[in-house]
Amino acid sequence: LRCLLPRGQERIVTAGSCISGTHAAHASYRIMPVSMATGQAAGICAALAAERQTSVHDIPAREVQQELRLQGALV
Question: Given this model, what pLDDT does residue 49 score?
Answer without folding.
Answer: 96
